[in-house]
Amino acid sequence: MHLQVSQLHKQFPIRRGSLVALKNINLQIEEGECICAVGASGSGKSTLLRLIAGLDTPTAGEVLVDGVRVTGPGPDRGMVFQSYTLYPWMTVAENVGFGLKLQGVSSVERRRRVAYYLEVVGLSGFAKSLPKELSGGMKQRVAIARALASQPKILLMDEPFGALDVQTKEAMQQFLLEVWQRTRTTIFMITHDVEEAVFLSQRIYVLSSRPGTVKEELSIKLPSDRTYEIKCNPLFQDYKDRVMGLLRAEEDKTLLKSSFQELPMVV
Fold first, then answer.
1. Is domain 1-76+156-267 classified as CATH 3.40.190.10?
2. pLDDT for 226
């Protein structure tokens, strides 16, 4: 799997003309990588993910998956949002298998995949439960299992742990690493949490603010089998400080601009 974003540009019409959300974005992700993009509000990171997912169209530039141009949503790209987006009237197993049913996958194969991915996310014992019977972290595990069940080439994640409490969030970060190590699914995740990005990523794209551009690409040279003890590693803190410094510089630039003019927000 190879994802390539080339000269991506996105602008939105506003009353006074247009707002440039993304400008000349270039990035690439190879099979089996876990990559994060970080940026403050106004960096257009959610817009970038929507363009890769095919939920919106670029003003200019293109997104390619294995050389094929993205023109809309497709099964080669799985999506996990911050909100759980589960169907409340369906059981856990039915939620995980829903996309497969739409794709015309046979009932036998659906049952096999649902059972496998529920086991991967540690929810085999909750197959018949309804979403209202689950915790927030468990609901997000179901959403991840549902996305993985379609066996996408790349899993796109839009701040998937942003709505969780700190303890659950940390547990879910460790869980995601374990799922990635087990399935080797390619992952591209956006987040505003710098520590989360350093903990999960092999590479980080730091986005500038309004318009969003790739300010820096940073390789994370930490072991792939990470646990929370690695946060005590001085190298981990060095990476975190480097990214935080880049983001602070962008925040200072944004504050300076806002002192001269009022601009709408793009997230």
1. no
2. 87
